[in-house]
Amino acid sequence: MKMSGPNGDPNITNDDGIIDNEDEFSEEEYAAINSMLDQINSCLDDLEERNDALNGKLHELLESNRQARQEFQAQLNEKDKDKTQPPPSHEDSPPCDG
Description:
Elements: E1 2-3, E2 12-13, H1 27-84
Antiparallel strand pairs: 1-2
Protein name: Bublin coiled-coil protein
Region (Disordered): 1-25, 73-98
Pfam family, one: UPF0184
């Protein structure tokens, strides 16, 4: 019987001695496997917490960046608006005595 291996290795058979259908594990082996799985689970939980924290910080940074960009754009628009307005005419000002 041919089966695919754990990494997709195509030519692993029962005759290779890698796949063994005999479930003869001792209690100590089961305990060791359970302990390793608990450690892996703990590490994955820690990674998930770190990922969530980084994700939250990233969202805060993006929002801060968005606000700063909007403020900068508003300042640029205000400067452009000032440049496009004609200078005040002298017709509206009182005549100079001179």
